[in-house]
Each structure stands twice: as structure tokens, then as C-alpha cells.
Amino acid sequence: MPEYTPAPLIKAAEQFAKLPGIGMKTAHRLAYHVLSLPQESVVEFTSAIALARESVKFCSSCQNFTETVPCPICSDTRRNSRVICVVESPRDVSVFERAGGYNGVYHVLHGLLSPMDGTTPDDIRVKELMQRLSGDIEEVIMATNPTVEGEATASYISRLVKAVGVKTTRLAYGLPAGAALEFADDVTLTKALENRNEI
Amino acid sequence: MPEYTPAPLIKAAEQFAKLPGIGMKTAHRLAYHVLSLPQESVVEFTSAIALARESVKFCSSCQNFTETVPCPICSDTRRNSRVICVVESPRDVSVFERAGGYNGVYHVLHGLLSPMDGTTPDDIRVKELMQRLSGDIEEVIMATNPTVEGEATASYISRLVKAVGVKTTRLAYGLPAGAALEFADDVTLTKALENRNEI
After folding, report:
1. Which residues of chain A make contact with B91, given a CB cutoff of 8 A?
2. What is the mean pLDDT of residues A173-186?
């Protein structure tokens, strides 16, 4: 923005531009929009975000975002805690829950292995998954995205899981390859879950 | 989001969804992203936005956003304060300044007349413009977008301005009709400014 633009406005735009999928042009539009809002709306906006960051914790068991530890899914006794579905992110848990048809529990990795980005097994929640396997676990379903990183992560983790004698399966390739799990429709996702194969 | 999703996360997503051009899906992604950031980054984000809203004021003369009153453009003695370019929003000022080729001052309406949305002359800064005309003003350039609301606003204001004996011009239709001023390229914009016509 030109030099006469107020510095706090530029700073706000720069902060918006740090969000994923928001470029400089959109960030400027958002910053200008915020200035035109009533003060109360801005306070509401910033405090909702601050509160979310402060009050939401990781579940001690599945590592999903939660307000209560353990999370509502892990503490739900009607669910089968002997089947663990391993996903990349909390959003993937939402996708499975929305689709329905799955009654086990989850494990959120918070990332995928990626040698290009320098993401090693220590950067994602693999250790926490292995700790859970000391309990009475029947099956681990690898439900990472069908991308290069997703496949590599599934294959790495399945080797570790099989080594401790637990059955490992992978989502069926009903999913269109290269796509993101998040955008799959409910039928495709449920099919992929039903037709999972041992790896 | 399903009912097990932490309430503060849903609230944060709802706040993001209130921003222009951000739908519920993107809002959820942004909310999840915020939770994965370090606490300091979230504080940086929310405080930059709060600070922008608190410290940026309206220029007493041109009504543009500014930290100092009057704003740097209005207080720049090298500029011709006898020519006023009337625009819809502060972003339009940025567009003219980036294009260069204009040496007068501005007047920001902060909106356009729109009977459909119930926006009347009292809702935009028309009164403030008329007050400025009591000074030594040579020309008022109507530089609202070439849309229905933009044309209606230009025509309404130009009638008022001509009534007090000040020359009124409209940006030349070098601009592609129906487009937003913000996306015009510098050459088109400068041409439109050069070929402005008395209305």
C-alpha cells in the first residue's frame, strides 16, 4: 500500500495475509473492512479467536482439539475404543463424523511425514499413537489423504503398528487419487471405509 | 460442525465467516489454522486488528482513514486542494495514488446511494463534502464505480455540487462498464482521469 496508508492498517493486512489461502489483495480488503466495523464487532472477533486458542486443548488420548480432556469421542462408552482411525488433522475427524458409519475412535497426527518440508516422525503424533497400542487395540485404520505424503505416512506408521502385532488397514481407493479427504462426498467416504484392506 | 467440536472453535469460525468473501468452509479452515499457531502469533494477529480499529480515525476533511488528523494527503501543501476527487471507499484512494497522475485531494463517501439496501444520502459522507465546498473549490471529480449505484450517486451529488456553482466532472468511460474501480489497470485509470467530462 502507498506510504500515506496508516501503519496499523498495513500491519492488520499483513496479519490477515499470514492466514492460509489469503493473498495480499484480500488481506487489504479484510483490513479495510475491519476498520468500517463497529468497535464491539471487532472486540467480538478478536476475543472469539483469542478464546478459541486459549481454551481449546489437545485430547490426551486421540490428540484431537477439545475443551474437555479426554474428548467427547474418546470418553463416549458407546464407541468401540479398540479400533483407531488415524487421520492427518482435526478437520478429517469432522469429515468422518459428518459422513457417519464409523463407530471407533480416532488418532490425529497433526501433520504428515514430508522429507521435503523436513517433517519427521517426531514432528507428528506418532509416539502418542504407539503408546495407545499398549492397551487392548484390535485394529488401526490408516486414513491419511491419498497423496504422496499421506501414503508415505500410512506406510511408515503401518510398519510400526504391525511390528507390535496389531492389525493395520488402509482406506480403500474409492477416493479419487490426489484429492483431499476433506472434499470427498459422504458415500465415497463411507465406501472407502467399508472396503478398507489390510496392509 | 458436528456437536463434539469445541464451542470456542465454532465461535471463532463464525466470526471468520462474517468477513466479506469468506464462506463457512474457509472460516472453519481458518479457525482450525489459528488453533495450530503458537500463542504469540495469535496475540500478534488479534492485537494488530484491535490496534488498527482503535488507532485509525477519519480525516476531518476528506474522511479517509488516517492516523493523523488532517490526513497526510490533505495536509500536503504540494497538492492542489481546490480539486476534489470523490470516491466510494478508502481503497479507491489507494488505487488513484498507486496509478499516480492525480495531484488534487479526495473525498471518501464510505458507501454509495442504494435504495435497494436502504442507503440514503445521510448514510454516506455527502454533508461533509458540501461543507468543504464553502471553501475555495474549483472542481469536483465524481470517481465512483461505473455501476448502477455509482452512477446514481455521481448524478445525485453532481446536482448538489452544481447548485452551489462548482464545476463537476465525471471519470471518462475508459473504464469497462460494470467493473469495479479497484481492479482497473493504471493506464486505463489515468486515461479515465484525463478524459473526464463536465456533467
Report:
1. 28-29, 32
2. 71
